[in-house]
């Protein structure tokens, strides 16, 4: 049953509306092991007198929690924001760390390393036209700051109607362009709301482009993936992309930087998100599942769900050149936990580029953080029952940099057990 919850929150003709649906029985009918509450819905945001603007969310409560009234104030609550820009968080939901995955035959399976074993999970498709979110307004949002305002509006409405979840410990996690979205969103949340924000986690984070373009090429040749000839070509594209930022030619920046990172045409079948993988299955089975159940998810009949929207990617051209390090500095100054994690084999966003920008932060404790030594962290391999090295971590107070070995851009997909332990470590820090 679709529930319509309407309440006034703005002056003028605008109205705020939450459309929520209990999906527990639907998923349980396809996967009997489901033992937690599942909800999907839309939240209408913005000036609804002008246009209908709906952001889609999916909520999975922690395992064994079958109703929202059982949420406790000290529960951990992860809000997941995916990247792109323009990609749906449902990709992460079904392919990375959510409780359910879809196979080639459209059958559902429980994910043994689902993060809802540790926390409540909410995946948001944003901005409008990403995934299942849409608007009747012409034009696209083109920057992380405007996008954040709508997400805050969604959360404000949702917490008003779900007091139990509003008291939980809020953590905002994501990857890739989430490294841009999330610091901006978290800063605005800290400054403009009383949400119980505890920390952020950003993986494969695109956060400070000027120091992240060139290291990608250097990493490729260091890993032996490209030869000197292609290194020279890709370095030329990388340098030209940075010059385009100075010239404020943002479309050229995207074209040149894409030439630099999208190297499949010159080296063969290596998967650019993890160079150890060949002939990769992109995991788009969940797209068919959503489109086959559009009515169940209240997706309008005229919309076909796609994992990523290239138009949004292009609309964010200028935004992709802007550094969000000031937002991260602010969060650290407010004692918000900042957990930066990275897959060792990611060559879309190189770990060396992320190392560079972390060391450029202006946080007052950074000189002490720099002097800390990296330490090894481990996990139990469920197949061998043996303890294995998962990666390295460097920490001081609220800043943590975690490397995950043998993982690429989608770290929880490549190393699910290690990533599950990583999340546990994050909560315990």
TrEMBL record:
Keywords of this entry: Carboxypeptidase, Glycoprotein, Hydrolase, Protease, Signal
Enzyme nomenclature, EC number: 3.4.16.-
KW Coiled coil (keyword) present: no
Name of protein: Carboxypeptidase
Uppermost EC category: hydrolase
GO molecular function, one term: serine-type carboxypeptidase activity
Domain of life: Eukaryota
């Amino acid at each position: 049953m679709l529930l319509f919850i309407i309440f006034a929150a703005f002056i003028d003709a605008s109205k705020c509306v939450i459309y929520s649906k209990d999906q527990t029985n639907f998923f349980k009918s396809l996967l009997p092991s489901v033992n937690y509450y599942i909800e999907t819905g839309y939240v209408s945001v913005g000036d609804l007198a002008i246009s209908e603007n709906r952001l889609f969310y999916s909520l999975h409560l922690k395992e064994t929690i079958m109703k929202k009234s059982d949420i406790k104030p000290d529960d951990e609550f992860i809000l997941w924001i995916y990247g792109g820009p323009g990609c749906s968080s449902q990709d992460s939901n079904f392919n990375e760390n959510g409780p359910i995955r879809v196979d080639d035959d459209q059958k559902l399976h429980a994910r043994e390393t689902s993060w809802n074993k540790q926390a409540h999970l909410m995946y948001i498709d944003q901005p409008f036209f990403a995934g299942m979110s849409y608007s009747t307004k012409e034009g696209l949002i083109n920057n992380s700051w405007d996008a954040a305002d709508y997400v805050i509006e969604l959360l404000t409405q949702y917490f008003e109607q779900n007091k139990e979840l509003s008291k939980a410990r809020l953590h905002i996690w994501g990857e890739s362009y989430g490294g841009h979205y999330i610091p901006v969103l978290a800063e605005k949340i800290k400054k403009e709301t009383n949400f119980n924000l505890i920390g952020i986690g950003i993986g494969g984070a695109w956060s400070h482009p000027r120091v992240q373009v060139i290291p990608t090429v250097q990493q490729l040749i260091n890993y032996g993936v490209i030869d000197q000839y292609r290194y020279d070509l890709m370095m030329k594209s990388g340098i030209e992309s940075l010059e385009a930022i100075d010239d404020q030619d943002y479309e050229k920046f995207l074209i040149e930087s894409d030439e630099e990172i999208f190297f499949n045409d010159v080296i063969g079948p290596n998967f650019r998100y993890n160079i150890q993988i060949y002939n990769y299955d992109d995991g788009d089975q969940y797209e068919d599942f959503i489109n086959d159940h559009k009515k169940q998810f209240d997706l309008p009949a005229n919309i076909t769900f796609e994992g990523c929207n290239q138009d949004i990617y292009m609309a964010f051209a200028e935004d992709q050149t802007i550094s969000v390090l000031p937002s991260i500095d602010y969060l650290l100054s407010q004692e918000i936990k900042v957990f930066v994690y990275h897959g060792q084999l990611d060559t879309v966003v190189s770990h060396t580029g992320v190392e560079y920008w972390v060391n450029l932060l202006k946080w007052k404790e950074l000189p002490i953080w720099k002097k800390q030594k990296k330490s090894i962290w481990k996990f139990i391999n469920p197949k061998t029952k043996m303890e294995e090295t998962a990666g390295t971590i460097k920490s001081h107070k609220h800043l943590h940099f975690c490397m995950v070995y043998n993982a690429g851009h989608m770290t929880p997909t490549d190393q699910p057990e290690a990533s599950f332990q990583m999340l546990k470590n994050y909560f315990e820090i």
